[in-house]
Write a sequence for this structure.
């Protein structure tokens, strides 16, 4: 009788220990996977200009919860089982700064519902565009002439180049030059009088290629004065092989627009100084836009 009782107690203890381990260490849930090989940006060229972009990552949300920001191609693990609301937002380097990654507010969100199951993979190809509430001002696409001129009191030249070897896209791009014996060039939009809302987000978009550093800024114009404000300094676009290549930057104009909200108009300017090695400075531009809500 004693043996039976002891045996029963031992079995009960073992079962309790086993059940206790299961409670303390339950089986971990398995993720489903969202595969994003690539994306497309689609624009209406007649009203929104070029579809050239510099989206550097996508921000993934599932059921309104941020999963993370991912470079593409991406395979995103998500702990869900069943119909899931997926939202994909395009991300950029704000002002061209690699450590300042943001969701670009003017591009649309890609949204869909997926029936996701653990360990299964769903592949999607997001499509983005400008939001309907966005105003796109095509400052200069250099397809005809150019709205830029060399500022008074400085040197250099601005022309529209049609050289296929350097044109970014279409028939032409802008080219600002500064010879070895010239010290400073500044090109500025010529009486375009851009209107920026002082209480809403606004950005400048620009494709560029350069062998020298350059500054991008705004002139704030009022009947009484003109104020020059620098926004970003852009480095030469030379790759590791020593070759020049095209890049794109998104420049936040919001602070300047708010600071000078009582000023009537704005102009865009780009500035560069002589190269220390004595070579001719060459700055290329294309698809310069201002976007705002």
């Amino acid at each position: 009788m004693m043996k039976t009782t002891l045996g029963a107690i031992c079995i009960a203890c073992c079962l309790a220990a086993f059940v206790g381990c299961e409670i303390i260490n339950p089986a971990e849930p398995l993720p489903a996977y969202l595969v994003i090989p690539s994306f497309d940006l689609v624009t209406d060229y007649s009203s929104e200009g070029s579809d050239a972009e510099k989206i550097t990552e996508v921000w993934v949300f599932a059921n309104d919860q941020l999963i993370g920001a991912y470079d593409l191609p991406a395979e995103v693990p998500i702990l869900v089982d069943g119909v899931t609301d997926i939202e994909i937002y395009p991300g950029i380097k704000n002002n061209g700064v690699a450590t300042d990654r943001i969701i670009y507010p003017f591009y649309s969100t890609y949204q869909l519902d997926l029936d996701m199951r653990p360990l299964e993979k769903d592949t999607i190809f997001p499509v983005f565009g400008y939001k309907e509430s966005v105003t796109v001002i095509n400052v200069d696409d250099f397809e005809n002439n150019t709205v830029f001129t060399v500022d008074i009191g400085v040197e250099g030249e601005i022309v529209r180049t049609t050289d296929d070897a350097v044109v970014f896209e279409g028939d032409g791009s802008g080219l600002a030059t500064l010879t070895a014996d010239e010290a400073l060039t500044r090109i500025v939009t010529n009486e375009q009088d851009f209107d920026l809302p002082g209480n809403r987000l606004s950005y400048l978009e620009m494709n560029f290629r350069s062998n020298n550093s350059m500054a991008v800024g705004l002139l704030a114009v009022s009947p009484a004065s003109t104020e020059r404000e620098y926004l970003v300094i852009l480095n030469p676009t030379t790759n590791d092989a020593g070759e020049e290549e095209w890049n794109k930057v998104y420049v936040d104009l919001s602070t300047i627009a708010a600071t000078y909200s009582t000023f009537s108009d704005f102009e865009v300017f780009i500035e560069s100084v002589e190269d220390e090695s004595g070579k001719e400075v060459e700055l290329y531009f294309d698809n310069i836009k201002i976007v705002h809500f």
